[in-house]
Specification:
With 354 residues, chain A is α+β, with helices and mostly antiparallel strands. Chain A is built from twelve helices and ten strands. Chain B has a seven-stranded antiparallel sheet. Chain B has a four-stranded mixed sheet with strand order 8-9-11-10. The N and C termini of chain B lie far apart (105 Å). In chain B, 37% of the residues are buried. Classes of the chains: A alpha+beta (354), B alpha+beta (357).
């Protein structure tokens, strides 16, 4: 399915992606069984397409036209373009939370179990502002406020979820998240410095002491570098590329520690009816999952992306338990209206997710 | 008759029902379920059918309601009456996918034609002059970055005389500005805002003033047809199309350096400029064979190693493909026209020396 989706995406110049995503979701949802009954994804590709088209017309098109207009009228390096781009970047980061929220709402409204569909109660605007605020706060505290903001955001997200007439509840403190956060944070720091020292030593060993002179000449675009200088410059840039590559590989692994803990704690804070969720995610298994996913992603050049998503869902479902009784028979159908458009903003901003 | 599980789409409660396939559809009966008939048309599979596995179906007229069948005989019987439930790989699905693919390709092709072919040639003529000037100026500055502009009193006069001569036969000619830069690569450019830039090397290698007039007439063709403005609109349109496809933004002319790339015209544009040049030369009694001679010189040099690149200016040898075909289209002045030289020998010498000050 991954490959067919990829092929049709090429043929239709990526427009098929909405139908591809729908097919992937249908498959992943149907693999999730709760008490013997599977989840069912009832969304349609055309809904995603319409949503994306709508957002493009009201949001993307004016931006592109404005920038194109300015670059034709005043040239492509006019400062006004930078100003417009900054403005749109600002608007995008303001809307990011709303995109996440509305995407979740759409997906829940298209998720059925025993004939009853889900919903996400609450205001996308409120969530969006909270999300934007949390971005700012995280920046200002070097990330240390992340667990608190995460709890706040999930209170809106998980606490707003409905299954038919039955609400999910979310309540808990951020405290238990901090030990894992601290480990990930300091490990990131250590890995960063470790990679820098290791690669720095390697570059220094290979390129020797004339490197700075060779680089100075290179950036000043003086004369043609000698073969030896060219080698040194090559080693230098290979070192920088290696740094980013290693960081790119290690970052998700290091943060798996926090991710595993966060998921388990957030699930533990969530309940529906008289039943409480329990998610047995562990650091080791999460790191294994992450490494496997990185390998799949790299070796299929991204085509295996849906498979990566499925692995994550399977991992979560295998470790998810619901303790307690839910009075299923008394859950009534959701009365929330079904929109005909889905997730346009999420597609435009490429917020990720399934 | 077989038993099945039924969800009514109103509550999450599970109901046991008896199901039977009748001539009109699937009949459902249960202790706490009102008797109902699900017509064959409108039945939809929730998941793909697999033998010996529970089969979930819904009906278009009953949103949310689900029946889960597990009796193999009944499922076989039902599929015999409603073969569309089996789904899978059948001609109808293939045709539909092919249809949608062809349709979206056709729409994209039409959009691409409108945005990249039709719109640029119209929009190029309604762009405000101030816009064209500004962008032209930026491209000229970027392209000739670091090069000296060539001036000499006699040389400027001679250049003006060439332009004036071409204007003689073309009263509708736009008011062009022509500048010569001391660049060691042979080339000439037409830019937005009725600008033409020539390299000193081109004048140096030209055999006579008529050849320079021919090149100028060719660039004048680009200016008159507003090819560079059209390219500008085209590049913007491409950006628009890409952002439509990817849903986000993308950059094609994100910098002036990228903008300079729009001066690479299509063959069709080159042919239009050639046709214009020949007509303009005829109308001004300039020998079109001079342009032909210039192209032949380019062709002869094609075998030689290229003169290389100066900054962003590459040699005309690299940027003008298909020279042979273009040469064949240039014919001598028709009968009734008497060739008059464009410049006197003294003027030609002055023009040749324009970069030598």
């Amino acid at each position: 399915m991954c490959f067919v989706n990829f092929l049709l995406g090429l043929l239709t110049l990526s427009i098929y992606r909405f139908w591809a995503r729908t097919n992937v979701r249908k498959h992943i949802w149907s693999c999730v069984h709760i008490n013997g009954e599977p989840l069912e994804y009832t969304g349609r590709g055309i809904e995603l397409f319409k949503g994306a088209l709508f957002v493009f017309v009201v949001f993307g098109l004016p931006a592109v036209l404005l920038i194109a207009g300015i670059s034709i009228a005043y040239g492509p390096e006019h400062p006004a373009i930078g100003a417009v781009q900054t403005l749109f970047l600002f608007i995008v980061s303001l809307l990011w939370g709303a995109a996440v929220f509305r995407a979740r709402r759409y997906q829940l409204s298209r998720t059925q179990w025993r004939g009853i569909r889900g919903w996400l109660e609450g205001s996308a605007t409120t969530y969006s502002l909270l999300y934007f605020g949390s971005l700012l706060a995280r920046g200002m505290t070097l990330g240390w406020i992340t667990p608190v903001m995460s709890i706040n955001l999930q209170e809106k997200m998980l606490g707003g979820m409905r299954f038919g007439s039955m609400p999910f509840r979310f309540k808990g403190r951020a405290g238990p998240l901090y030990p894992a956060y601290a480990i990930s944070w300091f490990l990131t720091f250590a890995v960063f410095i470790g990679i820098a020292i290791a690669l720095g030593a390697a570059v220094a060993f290979l390129a020797g002491d004339d490197l700075s002179a060779a680089l100075g000449d290179f950036f000043a675009e003086k004369e043609q570098p000698t073969e030896e200088q060219a080698f040194k410059i090559g080693v230098f840039f290979a070192g920088i590329a290696g740094f980013y590559l290693l960081l790119f590989l290690f970052y998700p692994i290091v943060w798996s520690i926090y991710a595993a803990r966060e998921m388990a704690v957030l699930a533990g804070y969530t309940s529906i009816g008289d039943a409480r969720f329990r998610l047995r995610t562990t650091t080791g298994s999460m790191i294994g999952l992450t490494i496997g996913n990185i390998l799949i992603w790299v070796f299929t050049l991204g085509i295996g992306g849906p498979y990566v998503n499925q692995r994550l869902v399977r991992y979560l479902c295998d470790r998810m338990e619901i303790d307690g009784k839910v009075d299923v028979d008394n859950i009534r159908q959701s009365t929330a209206p079904l929109s005909t458009m889905g997730e346009g903003l999420a597609d435009a901003l490429d917020v990720g997710g399934l | 008759m077989a038993s099945a599980i039924y969800f009514d789409g109103l509550s999450a409660a599970e109901h046991k029902v008896d199901v039977v396939v009748t001539a009109n559809g699937l009949r459902l009966d249960g202790a706490d379920t009102p008797s109902q008939l699900w017509a064959f048309r409108g039945l939809e599979p929730i998941e793909r059918f697999h033998p010996h596995r529970p089969f979930r179906i819904s009906h278009k007229s009953r949103p949310g309601a689900r029946v889960i069948l597990s009796d193999d005989t009944l499922i076989t019987d039902l599929i015999a009456h409603a073969p569309h439930l089996k789904g899978g790989f059948h001609m109808k699905a293939v045709k539909r996918i092919a249809g949608w693919t062809a349709g979206s390709l056709a729409v994209t092709a039409l959009g691409a034609y409108l945005v990249l072919q039709l719109a640029p040639s119209y929009l190029a003529f309604i762009l405000p002059d101030s816009w064209r000037n500004r962008v032209g100026q930026q491209i000229e500055m970027s392209l000739t970055e670091g090069a000296r502009q060539c001036h000499s009193t006699e040389g400027d006069t001679a250049l003006a005389a060439v332009v004036a001569r071409l204007a003689e036969g073309n009263p509708d000619m736009p008011p062009i500005t022509v500048r010569v830069y001391a660049v060691p690569v042979m080339n000439a450019f037409a830019m937005p805002g009725d600008r033409i830039v020539m390299t000193g090397e081109l004048i140096r290698q030209a055999e006579n003033a008529d050849q320079v007039a021919g090149v100028l007439a060719h660039e004048l063709g680009h200016v008159t047809h507003r090819h560079s403005e059209a390219q500008l609109v085209r590049a913007t349109g491409l950006q628009l199309l890409l952002s439509l496809l990817t849903g986000g933004g993308s950059d094609t002319i994100g910098s002036i350096a990228g903008l300079a790339a729009i001066l690479n015209y299509s063959r069709q544009a080159e042919a239009e400029a050639d046709d214009f040049a020949v007509e303009a030369m005829e109308a001004s009694d300039v020998d079109p064979m001079a342009l032909r001679g210039f192209f032949e010189m380019l062709l002869k040099q094609e075998g030689k190693p290229s003169t290389g690149a100066f900054g962003k200016i590459t040699s005309a040898l690299n940027t003008h493909p298909g020279t042979e075909d273009r040469i064949d289209k240039i014919h001598p002045l028709p009968a009734g026209h008497a060739i008059r030289p464009v410049l006197s020998t003294a003027q030609w010498q002055a023009l040749r020396n324009i970069c030598k000050s």
